[in-house]
Design a protein that fits this description.
Blueprint lengths: L2 E3 L6 E3 L3 E2 L5 H4 L3 H13 L4 E3 L4 H4 L1 H9 L8 E6 L7 H15 L4 E9 L2 H8 L4 H10 L3 E8 L3 H10 L4 E5 L5 H13 L3 E5 L6 H4 L15 H10 L6 E3 L5 H9 L9 H14 L19 H13 L5 H12 L14 H5 L6 H9 L2
Parallel strand pairs: 3-4, 4-5, 5-6, 6-7, 7-8, 8-9, 9-10
Antiparallel strand pairs: 1-2
Helix pairs in contact: 2-4, 4-5, 5-7, 8-9, 14-15, 14-17
Length: 367
Amino acid sequence: MIYKDYGTTGKKISAIGFGGMRFLEEEYTKDKAIAAQLVHEAFTRGITYFDTAPGYCKDQSEEIMGEAFKTMKYGDFYVSTKCSLWNAKDADDTRRMIEQSLKRLNVPKITFYNLWCIKNMDEYHQMTAKGGIYEGILKAQQEGLVEHITCTTHADSDDIAVIMNEGLMEGVTLGYNAVNFAYRRKGIVASHEAKKGVVVMNPLGGGAIPQNPQRFSFLTEGTTDNVAVAAMKFLVAHKEITAALPGFSTVAEIEDAVAATKNLPVIDEAYLSNLAQKLGEELNALCTSCAYCDECPEGIPVPKLIDSYNEALLSEPKDMANVASKLKNFWGITAESAKKCIECGICERLCTQKLPIIERLREMAAM
């Protein structure tokens, strides 16, 4: 296992983290100890960063982690959990969420406590306003219940840069993988340059990469790796990334992720340029989220809509419900804005892949 500095916190965490939102329901509903064994398996393989949240796995994830932590020495592992606008309206609510998480997790303090799912600057300002979530976490930190204040975000890269440079956060968790790196890279670079810890979620594209090995076979060129391992290596090799955060359901998935810390490629601009070219050649129907099309005169968030349309292209058979889910759960929007399209064609002229954006917007508007 490789261990990397988490910003300037003084913590070194494993380059592969454990995302606690994919425990198998048939296991944890029968006995949490069964699911907790997966945490132990990860720990014995060198994974020391465990991420969870209230609500994950039907609100059982924190308790599953806590069951495992009972027999793990505190200080040999690090735990990350979260609080958002949907479960805390003010600092007092936040304090109650922190105390609930401490009890569930069976730990004396929470290593990394996140302002959860910041989608835009308005939400960031709401969370950090006087009497809000940030103030509640800060007070808990002063009392020794929280070590480091961090955040998770789906904001644009420019907004991420602003948030990281403002200095309230010691680290960030954001979505980044071999498909969307062109759109998200600016955010991780800005965070790294601000000396923040950078954890990347959705490392396998929500399962799209391993579920479509032929589409993503270019990732494995010149290696004997399977596509999931290759996609993880791509992330671990980034100097800007502290840890990749896959969700685990089986020991085999853990073994694949740990294998991704060996024989890493060299990630430089030439490598990224080559990868971008491969994405264009092999996946010419799939948006790579470069965001060059983000010039709509009607203010339509074209990059977010077309990025979400990938979910329809990757599903067999084509399923627009997957698109709606991505829009809601990842970007925090709906397809309603697609109805504003005046078909001026600016976005299609700017698209480096020459995708049929207008046609896709029509389809999304009809959802």
